[in-house]
Design brief:
The complex is a heterodimer.
Chain A (H helix, E strand, L loop, with lengths): L2 E5 L2 E5 L4 E8 L3 E9 L6 E6 L5 E4 L2 E5 L3 E6 L8 E9 L7 E3 L3 E6 L1
Parallel strand pairs in A: 2-11
Antiparallel strand pairs in A: 1-3, 3-8, 4-5, 4-9, 6-7, 7-8, 9-10, 9-11
Chain B lengths: L3 E4 L2 E4 L5 E7 L3 E10 L5 E8 L5 E2 L8 E7 L2 E6 L8 E10 L1 E7 L3 E5 L1
Parallel strand pairs in B: 2-11
Antiparallel strand pairs in B: 1-3, 3-8, 4-5, 4-9, 5-6, 7-8, 9-10, 9-11
Classes of the chains: A mainly beta, B mainly beta.
Chain lengths: 112, 116
Amino acid sequence: EDQVTQSPEALRLQEGESSSLNCSYTVSGLRGLFWYRQDPGKGPEFLFTLYSAGEEKEKERLKATLTKKESFLHITAPKPEDSATYLCAVRSRGGSQGNLIFGKGTKLSVKP
Amino acid sequence: GAVVSQHPSRVICKSGTSVKIECRSLDFQATTMFWYRQFPKKSLMLMATSNEGSKATYEQGVEKDKFLINHASLTLSTLTVTSAHPEDSSFYICSASGTGANYGYTFGSGTRLTVV
């Protein structure tokens, strides 16, 4: 069964304190790993898609990496506006019409 | 970029009434739309997948007669919660994919439904 596990559940950082969020997955044929940012009461906002092990993508203070078993979202020198819940999702060959399977998310709080 | 508009953002209704939520793709043709439900501190749970012009495919455990989905055009899908009950209170989110949008990554802003 396809599964996505995110850790930690919550993360508190001081402004400027770099860290990483983890997304571990087991899927029957990965067809993409997605990272989203979700603010309270809003829909997920797309950040990155990774398709193969070794792939990396960057956007401002965020960098996403992928291995065969997990993905990391690295946050460098975070600012308070980076506070949000970060969601990881996978699309697998075995998925129902290709839908995404989500983890529960990591709630990031960045204090000034 | 691809934009998906979802309305209303919040709705309060009485038990037993029906509520309709709209999901529109504004700048691309959405051949497939997904409807999710999200509980606090839980993953987004897929409810159903709809393809334009055909019947929706519901996930196991989702009542077809309670959650009616219509995808009548390439830019509009609707979710109607029929005979709503307090346990239907939740955050509902749609997502769309199609020509001009990467697969499944454009989400609407969500609808907070409260049934009283």
